[in-house]
């Protein structure tokens, strides 16, 4: 679950099945009583219809927790932590970072670092589209060592420079206004 809409959907499904919960958070649900096999299957089916998945195995659950910590850190927090990401993720989840990194890479086929970079670039795109911050401010906000570092990473991931990406957005906006 990576959004408020997902949390609301899960709460609604639990309510419909008569399952009492304590917490519904990103990627996690804490229920008051054990579910019957029938309730579990119905919940699994209903969530799947909505594009969500009920995770059963410990590795999948851990991977979701890692992803949720990263998404929350980059997209939903006002300030990205100044500590190393590895330290932050390890502290948040209570596991050794090497174990987390190896498990993540094994299951997802990319490193945690690459997953973080991909999400940081998505955040850069979002901030460029809002047009409230310049590139220097964006690089500072996302803890890049320099604008050049941000630009190089952006181009490596998207194939475009940040300024060209921003120009494309302005051209599209101009084209829509001319309709």
| Overall helicity | 55-70%
Tell me the CATH topology of the domain at 116-177: Arc Repressor Mutant, subunit A
**Parts with pLDDT < 50 across at least 5 consecutive residues:** none
Assign the CATH superfamily of the domain at 116-177.
Homeodomain-like
CATH C-level class of the domain at 116-177 is: Mainly Alpha
What class do helices, strands and sheet pairing give?
A: mainly alpha
Mean pLDDT: 87
Q: What oligomeric state do the depicted chains represent?
A: single chain
Q: What shape does the CA trace take? A: globular
Strand content: 5-15%
Over the alpha carbons, how many angstroms does the gyration radius reach? 20 Å
| E-strand count | 2
- In the sheet with the most strands, the strands line up as 1-2
Please write the string of helix (H) and strand (E) elements.
HEEHHHHHHHH
Q: Report the end-to-end length measured between terminal Cα atoms.
A: 38 Å
List keywords for this structure.
single chain; 179 residues; mainly alpha; Arc Repressor Mutant, subunit A; two-stranded antiparallel ribbon; 9 helices; 67% helix
Notes on the protein architecture:
With 179 residues, this protein is mostly helical. Among the domains are: 1-54, no CATH class; 116-177, Arc Repressor Mutant, subunit A (Orthogonal Bundle), CATH 1.10.10.60. 67% of the residues lie in helices and 5% in strands. The chain has helices at 4-16, 37-49, 58-76, 85-93, 97-108, 112-130, 135-141, 147-158, 162-177, and strands at 21-25, 28-31. Strands 1-2 form a two-stranded antiparallel ribbon. Helix 3 crosses helix 5 (97-108) and helix 3 (58-76) packs parallel to helix 6 (112-130). The relative contact order is 0.07. The mean pLDDT is 87.
């Amino acid at each position: 679950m990576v959004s408020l809409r997902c949390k609301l959907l899960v709460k609604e499904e639990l309510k419909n099945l008569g399952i009492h919960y304590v917490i519904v958070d990103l990627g996690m649900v804490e229920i008051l009583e054990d579910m019957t096999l029938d309730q579990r299957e119905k919940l699994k089916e209903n969530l799947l219809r909505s594009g969500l998945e009920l995770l059963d195995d410990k590795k999948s659950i851990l991977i979701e927790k890692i992803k949720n910590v990263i998404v929350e850190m980059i997209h939903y927090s006002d300030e990205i932590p100044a500590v190393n990401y590895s330290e932050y993720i390890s502290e948040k989840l209570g596991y050794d970072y090497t174990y987390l990194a190896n498990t993540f890479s094994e299951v997802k086929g990319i490193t945690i670092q690459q997953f973080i970079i991909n999400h940081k670039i998505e955040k850069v795109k979002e901030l460029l589209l809002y047009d409230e911050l310049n590139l220097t401010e964006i690089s500072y906000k996302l803890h890049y060592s320099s604008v050049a570092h941000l630009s190089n990473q952006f181009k490596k991931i998207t194939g475009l420079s940040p300024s060209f990406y921003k120009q494309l957005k302005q051209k599209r906006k101009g084209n829509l206004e001319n309709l």
